[in-house]
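Please check both lines for our workbook:

___
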Amino acid sequence: MATETAEETTDRDIETDRTASGLEPNVAGALSYLLGPITGILFYLLEDEDEFVRFHAAQSTIVFGGLFVLSIVLSVVVTVLAFVPVVGWIFGALVGLVTTVLSLIGLVAWLFLMYKAYSGETYEVPFAAPHAHRYAEK
């Protein structure tokens, strides 16, 4: 009988360390960055209680959703500038260079944020974190 109680306690302890998705909080936090705003929204909607996962899901949605919108805007700007002879081409090339640099920064940020979440850390991206905290709190 004592063995059954110990096993039940162990099972309960394991379950309390899991999120609503059935994953450990650090894994769920890291996976919320995997596909940017898509998995961010998914984990935000699935997770009701765990503020760690909700924070990372909200931050993923804000950061990578913002980068996605910015890349669309810059693509439109480059397309419009392509129709302006010479000067437009020069500015278009500069905007294209900025887009490339932002893509590299986004890749590094993506890997870094997934690593921090998997490590169990709540790394705060400067402009996104205050909003993410507001959305993470119940």
Notes: The first helix runs from residue 2 to 16. The two ends are 40 Å apart (CA to CA). Confidence is low (pLDDT under 50) at residues 1-15.
